[in-house]
Amino acid sequence: MLFDFRHKKFIVTGASSGIGLVAARMLRAAGAEVFAIGQNAERLAALADETGCQPLQLDISDTPAMVAALAPLSGIDGLVNCSGIALLGPCLALDAESFDRVMAVNARGAAMMARHVAQIMLREGRAGSIVNVSSQASLVALDDHLSYCASKAALDAITRSLCLELGPHGIRINSVNPTVTLTPMAERAWRDPAKSDPMLAAIPLRRFATPEDVAGPILFLLSDAAAMISGVSLPIDGGYTCR
Predict the structure, then answer these.
(1) Burial degree of 109 (CB within 10 A; 0-12, 13-18, 19+)
(2) How many CA atoms within 13 Å lie on the side-chain side of 53?
(3) Structural domains counted in the chain
(4) What is the CATH number of the domain that holds 148?
(5) Whole domain around residue 80: which residue ranges?
(6) What is the chain's pLDDT, residue by residue, as a tens digit (243 residues)?
(7) For residues 185 and 18, is the Cβ–Cβ distance under 8 A?
(8) Which residues are tagged catalytic?
């Protein structure tokens, strides 16, 4: 898949692992300048050495730190909002602290990141594209995922609100909603066939996604090929949510 992002600048959050890491690599391979945001300084440094990304160590739930990190940036053409956490457990064991932590990163942090990147674009009169990495968990209920489902449903609502308000300024906002994606963490979590087999049986394509399966559509939504696409939540789930 060929994209040309030469002379473009993008911010990618969650870039120290998984989908964010692969998206940052693919954007660099397509010629973009990439600011790679994550919390793991060692992994960010390795990504910078490998690809030439510019690393920014940041917890996106820390708004003052976010404002300080983004203040020097200019000429931004897009954002991939990929930072996210999952604290799973039965709904009857839900505690307020865990719920708030998931919402602080997956919903509030993503919204504030989009806000501040959009402000950079608006200040410079620059159109662009923001892609929020949501989940199939925003579209269907999953056992033990109450906080995560809620946070990703909020993220899709944030996408629609941003679409409405920023569209007149030429800024497009979309979500991608992947199924289980085989990052190193997910491979460990879904290694048990007793857990993975029922999920695979519910996916018509009978496989989980790879980070590349998700990063490709992200690049499409960032590109001019998607110039008339805004406000969508795009399942990347092998058909899981078609039922």
Answers:
(1) buried
(2) 34
(3) 1
(4) 3.40.50.720
(5) 9-182+210-235
(6) 579 999 999 999 999 999 999 999 999 999 999 999 999 999 999 999 999 999 999 999 999 999 999 999 999 999 999 999 888 888 999 999 999 999 999 999 999 999 999 999 999 999 999 999 999 999 998 887 899 999 999 999 999 999 999 999 999 999 999 999 998 778 887 888 998 999 999 999 999 999 999 999 999 999 999 999 999 999 999 999 998
(7) yes
(8) 148, 152
Collapse the DSSP code of 150 into the 3-class scheme (helix H, G, I; strand E, B; otherwise coil) and give the result: helix
Say how far apart CA 145 and CA 199 lie, in whole Å: 14
Q: Is residue 86 part of a domain?
A: yes
Q: State the Cα angle at 211 between 209 and 217, rounded to 5°.
A: 85
Is residue 117 within 8 Å of 95, Cβ to Cβ?
A: no
Half-sphere exposure of 105 (CA within 13 A, CB side): 20
Q: Under 8 Å CB-to-CB from 106, ≥6 apart: which residues?
A: 83, 84, 85, 148, 151, 152, 154, 155
Query: 201 lies in a domain?
Result: no
Residue 203 in any domain: the answer is: no
In a domain, 26, yes or no: yes
The 10 Å CB-count burial string (b at 16+, else e) for 148-172 is bbbbbbbbbebbbebbeebeeeebb
Q: Is 128 exposed, middle or buried (0-12, 13-18, 19+ CB in 10 A)?
A: buried
